[in-house]
Amino acid sequence: MAEPLRLKAKSASPGIASGPAFLAERPDAAPAPRTVGGFGALEKAIDISIGELEHLAEGADAESRDIIDFQIEVLRDPTIAEATGARMEEDHNVVFAWVATLDAYIGELEAADEEQMRARAVDILDIKNRVLGALAGTPIADFPPGSVFVGKDMEPSRFLAHDWSKGGGIALFAGSTAGHVALLARAKSVPMVVGTGRFSAADGDPVRVDGDAGAVVLKAGGMLIPAPAQGPAGDTQTAGGELRTADGVPIQLSININDPAEIDALDPATAGVGLMRSEFSVTSIADAANEERQLAIYRRVLEQAGEKPVIIRMLDIGGDKPVAGLDDLPALAASGLRGIRLLLARPEIARVQARALLRAAVFGRLSVMLPMVTFPDEIDRMRELFREEAEKLGRRSLLHRMPPIGMMVEVPSAALMLDTFGSAAFFSFGTNDLTQYLAASARDDIDADAGKAAPAVLRLIAQAVKLTAGKPTSICGDMAGNPSYLPGLLAAGLRHFSVAPARRPAIRSAIIGLNADGTRAAGE
């Protein structure tokens, strides 16, 4: 029988605590979309946050009160509001103006020479996310009494809001013995360790924090998270139940998901996640600005997928996919900005998501897909943005990994010129938009024209596949989930299909009855 795993750490507060693990980076339920508004909404959110902090301070000891007073002082600092207002005048949305202002402050603290100054960065991160929560209507959630809090770091207000009378402890992957949470833990005799490094645990797993010896003990089977082998998601073969055509050609069958909960449909006979539409998990501009929330969502999917590849598409917003709170979205949509064009026009949105994806990449086999790509330089510009954010994360000593970056093929002009997209790591055909633009149909009328346009779409795909230069290529649009189109798609050379979970059995059954050239197998 495997022995429990003991991880060396730094003692931040003495004592020993055992309890079920609470993973701090798990996402809460998605909030209802909410319009954020302008500077007045930010002022209201700051007032709400100050009120919450003042409530926490009621009856708090002197050390706790000092920390809360510092946070309230920062929120009331007129220079913070002025800097945010100045960014809004530079065409920043109010949410991203707030994030940029606080991130600049956090960056200065993290670059300080003194550890005590560096430790204060988490206090500013705390109030940044508290105000974001107030803007989105999603307060910071508490965790079950008696739990062992497991995460990268912990906000002081979260510590103060929790009832420690029923026991529990804290185990942080990073953290500081000089940080405010460590100070509070010592004052309240809460066992705490820091600097464990990332380790594998599930919500509810038994964990023991040894604040005397500086260690964390996990149940048998626990492990430090290794650096997974990395490569484009498109070139992994199916694991478990290999799928082949009637004449023996291997086929990958993945699933599309819109919600992290749908990852449960990923069984051993599925190759992985061929498309996660991230915009359905980001329901407001406040969510789009919340790096930690996005990281938690992506991490959940990657950890559940295990060794199977996951392709997450960056936010495809604009047009018929609005995000509550982005006040100027109608004007952007009227200018034809959607998908990658909108992300490049509003890099503050792309940068937050890029950081979340870079950090999430260490938890599994992640590839990133860019939506609505039309020209090669759009990929180059986004790759450069990822490189810049990776450098920033490196300077902050935050664990991250650069994922392969590929593109959706859903614009006819791009499909005709795929050989010019040399920097794309992989391609995936999005037939919904491809059909719409080929048929010159409105989005809400495309169903009526899809059948008529199908021959043209299949011909275009067949031509485009020849231009991919052997790079991993898949199809994730609705045509992939329709058995009547499979012969044409196989004949075009496609060998990787990603479909809605409910369509997978029908597509699997259809594939095994066809030869790789799309003809029916003998006896079918």
UniProtKB/TrEMBL annotation:
Its cofactor is Mg(2+). Residues 10-120 form the Phosphotransferase system enzyme I N-terminal domain. GO terms for molecular function: kinase activity; metal ion binding. Pfam families: PEP-utilisers_N, PEP-utilizers, PEP-utilizers_C. Keywords: Kinase, Magnesium, Metal-binding, Pyruvate, Transferase. Residues 143-214 form the PEP-utilising enzyme mobile domain. It comes from the Bacteria. Residues 243-512 form the PEP-utilising enzyme C-terminal domain. Gene3D superfamilies: Phosphoenolpyruvate-binding domains (3.20.20.60), Phosphohistidine domain (3.50.30.10), PtsI, HPr-binding domain (1.10.274.10). GO terms for biological process: phosphoenolpyruvate-dependent sugar phosphotransferase system. Belongs to the PEP-utilizing enzyme family. This is Phosphoenolpyruvate protein kinase.
